[in-house]
Specification:
Blueprint: E1 2-3, E2 8-16, E3 19-28, H1 33-52, H2 60-76, E4 82-93, E5 96-105, H3 106-112, H4 114-118, H5 121-131, H6 151-161, H7 174-187, E6 194-196, E7 203-207, E8 211-216, E9 224-231, E10 239-246, E11 256-264, E12 276-282, E13 288-294, E14 300-305, H8 313-325, H9 327-356, H10 363-382, H11 385-410, H12 418-431, E15 443-444
Parallel strand pairs: 3-6, 9-15
Antiparallel strand pairs: 1-2, 2-3, 4-5, 7-8, 7-10, 9-12, 10-11, 12-13, 13-14
Helix pairs in contact: 1-2, 9-10, 9-11, 9-12, 10-11, 11-12
Length: 450
């Protein structure tokens, strides 16, 4: 639990046998001791204005003295219950010099900064959620940073984690000591400690409909490796665009682009046939390697993205916050894209199924199925999600009826019904935008023809 002068950070670590594994991390980059000083400063200005009618907010010289006094009062109230703020000759008016003499109690300070103290709870709860642990599973809460000495902060930690915080570490030296130890590890001078870090943000690819498909989730321990098999979204596609993204949003445009490369030399084939294996590999130094290989031709391309990707800590926190604020809207947008993808894939598989079994289906039923296919196409063209859902439901019902007719005609023969059964199953797989972890599952990626 690290509450310093400018930022607040919470990290959940699992320790054992010299290995420190980061389970999750969170924080607030706009919360620190300076905010507490500012709150006391504003209280002092308001009190002085009520007493004298003089507003010190516009007096730069006085503001500096007030800021120093506010910080001293805050520090003193961590060890005493009451302190006096005495600033002689703080300003002057027509009646002569004015002095500030105010008494600030710890109770009054707790009342003033209650909102700031409460802001530490959210990141703590989120870090617990991300780590998959409950507060009861935390053995020790180590307090770091000068602000962690404040009794109200310690009480909040006790409330959140259900235990007394550990104050055995010097909060002013802890970060510097940790940095020195990690420098020793990197230089090879310290070999009995290993730090296993985590990815600060989710990593993935842009796929059909400008959706971000996740490969490595946020807070995954590194080093790590993940591979996924994708397929093409257009007929006779010979080139695919691999667009690597970082962020927590559902749509590609809302995330940070950290790399892009082309995989060419694919053999022309129907959509959904090529198998393109994409691998994300992050080493212990946080360096990401992304490769894409066409399983048919063996063609491969890769890119190496350096650790950090140019993102400052503030940017990471902002992206996480934006994802939380827009979660509901993003889910709606993603659902719309997935509905469109499913409808498009259903049209493709239905037309193929109808063509393959044209001699086994009565003209009346063929006309009905074709009409339902045209209705789905019209809904896609109008980009109306509700119409697409209704049209795909009706098309699925017509396909089921067609399947019954085909199977009934083939009843009594050894291999009757095998063809349309296989065709229908294939169509269902292509319509499903979700991927599986094995090599058999594929994801329709927005690997656009160029």
């Amino acid at each position: 639990f690290d509450l310093g002068g400018g930022t607040f950070d919470i990290t959940i670590l699992q320790m054992g046998d010299g290995v420190f594994e980061v389970k999750s991390t969170n924080g607030d980059t706009f919360l620190g001791g300076d905010d507490f000083d500012q709150t006391i400063l504003e209280w002092m200005i308001d009190e002085f204005k009520q007493e004298t009618g003089i507003d010190l907010a516009s007096d730069r010289m006085a503001l500096q003295r007030l800021r120093d006094a506010a910080e001293r009062a805050k520090v003193e109230l961590s060890s005493v219950l009451e302190t006096e703020i005495n600033l002689p000759f703080i300003t002057a008016d027509a009646s002569g010099p004015q002095h500030m003499v105010k008494t600030l109690s710890r109770a009054k300070l707790d009342q003033l900064v209650a909102t700031l103290v409460d802001r530490t709870e959210g990141p703590c709860r989120q870090a617990l959620t991300d780590s998959g642990l409950s507060a009861d599973a935390i053995d020790e809460v180590i307090m770091v940073g000068g602000m962690s000495r404040m009794p109200a902060i310690q009480e909040k930690v006790k409330q959140v984690f259900g235990k007394e915080p550990n104050r055995n570490v010097n909060p002013d030296e802890a970060v510097a000591m940790g940095a020195a130890i990690q420098a020793g590890v990197l230089a090879g001078d310290v070999d009995d400690i290993v730090l296993l870090d985590v990815t600060p943000l989710t990593l993935g690819l842009e796929t059909l409909g400008s959706v971000m498909t996740t490969l490595i989730s946020r807070n995954t321990t590194i080093p790590t490796k993940k591979n996924e098999t994708f397929t093409t979204a257009a007929e006779n596609q010979t080139t695919v665009d691999i667009h690597v993204l970082q962020g927590e949003r559902s749509m590609a445009a809302d995330n940070k682009s950290i790399g892009r490369f082309m995989l060419d030399g694919l053999l022309p084939a129907p959509r959904g046939v090529p198998q393109i294996e994409v691998t994300f590999d992050i080493d212990a130094n946080g360096i990401l390697s992304v490769s894409a290989q066409d399983k048919g031709t063996g063609k491969e391309q890769k890119i190496v993205i350096q650790s950090g990707s140019g993102l400052e800590k503030e940017d990471i926190e902002r992206m996480v916050d934006e994802a939380a604020q827009n979660e509901e809207a993003d889910q709606v947008r993603r659902a719309e894209v997935e509905t469109r993808n499913q409808a498009d894939s259903l049209v493709f598989s239905s037309e193929k199924l109808l063509a393959d079994n044209a001699d086994k289906v009565p003209e009346e039923l063929k006309t009905e199925v074709q009409g339902k296919i045209d209705a789905v196409k019209a809904a896609i063209a109008s980009n109306n999600t509700v119409d697409m859902q209704t049209a795909t439901t009706e098309l699925n019902a017509a396909l089921q009826k067609m399947g019954e007719v085909v199977y009934s005609q083939g009843a009594g023969t050894e291999d009757g019904g095998q063809g349309p059964g296989d065709g229908s199953a294939t169509g269902g797989q292509e319509g499903d935008p979700a991927s599986s972890d094995d090599d058999e599952g594929t994801v329709e990626g927005e690997f656009r023809e160029v």
